[in-house]
Amino acid sequence: MLLFGPFRFDAEKLVLYQQQERYSLRPKVLQLLAYFLANPHQVIKRESLLSDLWQHGEYREAALTQSINELRQALGDNAQHPTYIRTLPQQGYQWICDVKAQKCAKKQLRLVLAICGATAITVGTSIVTSAFLERAEVQEVQKSALLILPLRNETGVQANAWWGYALESVLKEHLQHTHRLLPKSQTPELLTLPTVEQPSQLRLTLKPMQQRFLLQARLDSRHAEVVVEHLDQNFTEIAQQLLFMLQGQVTRLDNHIDPSPGLADYYRGLQALNEFGPQLAKPYFEAALVLAPHHLPSQLELAQIAWHQGDISQARARFAALDITHASAVLQARYYLYLGVFQKALGEFSQAKKNAQSALILAQQSQQIELIASAYQLRADIAWHLLQWQDYTMAMNAAYALVGSRSFAYSEAQRSFYLANPPAAGPQGKNLLNLAQSKKVLSHAIEYYRQSKDKIDLAKSLFAYGQNYLVPVSESEKSLLEALQIISDSGNFHLKTQVLTYLGFYYIQLHKGEKALYYLNQVELNEQFNSAIEQLNLLKAMAFMDIGLTHSDMDATQAAQRQFSVLLAAPDTSVMTRTNATLLLAWTWLKLDNLDKAQTLTERALADYQRFSISEAATYAAYTQMYIHLLRGQPERAISLVDLDKNKDVHLMLFYSSIAAHMTQNKALEQRSTELLSVLKNSAPLLQQLDEYKQQAGHNRIKHIMLLDAPYSVYCQSKWVLE
Q: What is the rounded end-to-end Cα distance, in angstroms, of the chain?
């Protein structure tokens, strides 16, 4: 047994205790702890940890970072002020806590580490079913990675493209047992890698051949060709024939008609769904059910289409009518995933959470990476709404480890309305977010989908690209408007609502309240979408607030105050919206010089942000209070709210701290605050205001503070100036 701090670690059984409490940690996290305890006070390079504990896997770096975060969280450690694990930039990690061991502990620990090295696996990021995932990962390491590319339809008839969806589905069913199939969404990114780094690829091409078709396949250096008499032939037999030929075997292709009626229409529906949207796809799925009334995949797609088109009652009826008792694990996972997303949109978070867990378990059984990642992302979305930040962080880390930056790049728009953007960073910090990588991934995706026929994937990529805060306004605005144009013709009212709503938020950030209202007023929502309606009302109030603050428009300011008050009076308003509305209402009173009301509301907002661990947004309330104290001539009270170590990247807190320090002649604080501000991007306007303020005569300084940037001068702290 190894002892450190208040903890006990059984090195033989890999069990961590604190007093009588036993911690439930992933095996990989416990192996990491064992590694640290075997090497206390030594600087351990990341490469050493990766070599010994993560010998294989595409996302080893992300897996290590996630495991370090989980271990710190379990130990109650702080990365900035560590007790156990110190991060040494450009070097690695160091265990800094003393370890006491019984006589035989070291021998046991060496044995454990030998086992760790012998059984090292790939990424371990599961939340509830981690043991299952890690066993699955061992199996996956033994399989070679394979990317099945979309079929190239060179027949000259776009309607023939449905056949590629059918063939791909059958090929996946056969190949998933022998290969680790990479998610289709990774295609744009993987194809940009150097040739030597790209995974194996199965390329399919369909060409006309007199009255028949020629199907060509290439897998690495192997080639195969199959003559197809009719596209309605049995997909399974054709796929199997193709695979036999790629393996060097040749068998005769029997020209049987596919025994399952309706499949052709189902795959035509999938093609239409990806290329044009639900409006065109719906008739195909309905046609499939005419021929095969019990075809579950068609029924499931129609259930999702129903609520995407705004018909909630029909969606409920279709989901309820589905009997998936004897369906495959993949189809069951999709059912729970679709249903969970639907329930989340309705604000039924408790039931959505249960279905997300069911989707995750079944997706893990299917071993389909994209499906598993989608289940994790749904868990993260639900945790966000429930203010369960630990679950949110772990779920997003798991999704990231599985599909990389796409887990952020395609995050839904609703998280973008968190005041302390960027959204995917989460309320507790920006450690998860890699905007630069997401921008790169999305740029490749847009280029790829422009060359393909998948308009919906193009629209989603454009939408996500427009939300990225590293994209200049000239590009992001164009990207968002193009996404809206594509989606408007698709019949997907749900996605159209998301784009319109985000455009409202986007123009509010640019202080274009009138333009924001133009798009927000186009949103039409079923009253049962409670969360979306609440969000829409908050944004409309913000748009009026922006008009009032920017143009000193009393009517707009009062309209904003009325709408914020309605949100605060409603008993079912969510905690996040209620707290944001409280702070935003305070800003309107601050603009009207009612410092008493502004201070009362700001104090309430700050208390709620802190209570619910919404730490980044809490800085908005904190520096708003600082501004009020400065207006009241109370610089000491403003200084009491300053935490330069924690908020060294918050423009206005550093700005107000410099002013307060100057007023109290605290030279050390003034110098440090100003230095920290000067290294931030887009800080030049604030530094200029600071110099102008210092030049004012003493009796004019309080009055001059009112001319400085107020707390509401920017609605998104992470992007001080939208370029």
A: 57
Asked if 585 and 567 count as a contact pair (C-beta separation under 8 A), the reply is no
CA dist 690 and 499 (Å) reads 39
Largest CA distance in the chain: 97
CB 617 within 8 A of CB 580: yes
Give every CB contact of residue 700 below 8 A, 6+ residues apart in sequence.
Answer: none
What's at 486, amino acid-wise? I
b/e 217-242 (16+ beta carbons within 10 angstroms → b): bbbeeeebebebeebebbbbbbbbbb
Predicted confidence (pLDDT) per residue in 335-383, tens digit = 999 999 999 999 999 999 999 999 999 988 887 888 998 999 899 889 8
List strand residue ranges (DSSP E) for 212-338, in order: 212-219, 222-228
Rg (CA), the chain: 29
Beta sheet of 85-88, edge-to-edge order: 43-44, 92-95, 85-88
Distance, CA of 686 to CA of 614 (rounded, Å): 26
pLDDT digits (tens, 9 = 90+) for 623-645: 999 999 999 999 999 999 998 98
CA-CA distance, 268 to 344, in Å (whole number)? Answer: 29
Q: pTM of the predicted model, to two decimals? A: 0.78
Q: Tell me the pLDDT tens digit for each residue of 140-186.
A: 445 688 999 999 999 988 888 898 898 998 888 888 878 888 888 88
What residues contact residue 130 under an 8 Å CB cut-off, 6+ apart? 26, 27, 28, 124
CB 639 within 8 A of CB 669: yes
